[in-house]
TrEMBL record:
Keyword ATP-binding: yes
Residue ranges constituting the ATPase dynein-related AAA domain according to the UniProt record: 28-161
Keywords: ATP-binding, Nucleotide-binding
Domain CbbQ/NirQ/NorQ C-terminal: residue ranges: 174-256
InterPro entries tied to this protein: ATPase_dyneun-rel_AAA, CbbQ/NirQ/NorQ/GpvN, CbbQ_C, P-loop_NTPase
Signal peptide (residue range): none
One Gene Ontology molecular-function label: ATP hydrolysis activity
The protein's name in its UniProt record: AAA family ATPase
Species this protein is from: Sediminicola luteus
Family in the record: Belongs to the CbbQ/NirQ/NorQ/GpvN family.
Cross-referenced SUPFAM superfamilies: P-loop containing nucleoside triphosphate hydrolases
Lineage: superkingdom: Bacteria
Amino acid sequence: MEPNIPYYKPLGKEIEVFTHAYSNKIPFLLKGPTGTGKSRFIDYMAHSLDRKLITVACHEETSATDLIGRYILKGAETVWTDGPLTTAVKEGCILYLDEIAEARPDVMVAIHPLTDHRRELYIDKLGQSLKAHPDFMLVASFNPGYQRGFKEMKPSTRQRFTAMGFSYPPPQDEADILSNESGVDADTAKKLVAIGNKIRNLTELGLTETVSTRLLVDAAKLIHSGLPKRLSVHVGVVEPLTDDPDIITSLKDLSDLMI
Ligand code: ADP
């Protein structure tokens, strides 16, 4: 295995499943809330399969042109420039469309012929169809967002992917992740995880997104670099979650008792 492989703690059969999806070049969908290790997992898999990874963070303005490419003006000439999808298709990379549902609908239209037996990219502006390199694989992530503010993914698109759900790790695994990522001791990691799980269980707060592993890792890093523990939890975990002053006060009080 390559040196510098990113640290990833497996939580189920995801490595085995992805490896098989990759050898069959079946598009892969990672479902789950933000900060649950989806990007880290893909980074890890790309390293262990020794494939180049190209990541596109999709947002509501992301269009098929952004992915496929465009003519740009260079002096008096217009020059065609490949977008990240075209590069990945040509060179046999893993393309990771992070938060695919956020992108414009024409992105889904562009990827459809790549996600079935055709494995082809149609480049409208060049009037060309490009056969995907045998090593090319499409991966996407999607936040199902059972609460407000997230876009849905159409069944016609999602059924083109093999899919796996990502969620918050079991407490001991999450504590190991915190220690590994930040260097905090096992006891502090355990307490941070307990705070995380306590807040996750307070569903009545109606938070759009609850405490992710990422937030706990950030708090752990602040603690490890010497910021007082309670303050680290306030700024690393509580404040990013909400702007409601009453909720902030009660979450700070609650976490102060736990660390
Ligand atoms: P997502 O892509 O789901 O939003 P990330 O992959 O960026 O989330 O994960 C956020 C952070 O959480 C990572 O940077 C890493 O520190 C940590 N993390 C979460 N799950 C794991 C895991 N299973 N192994 C290692 N680190 C993890």
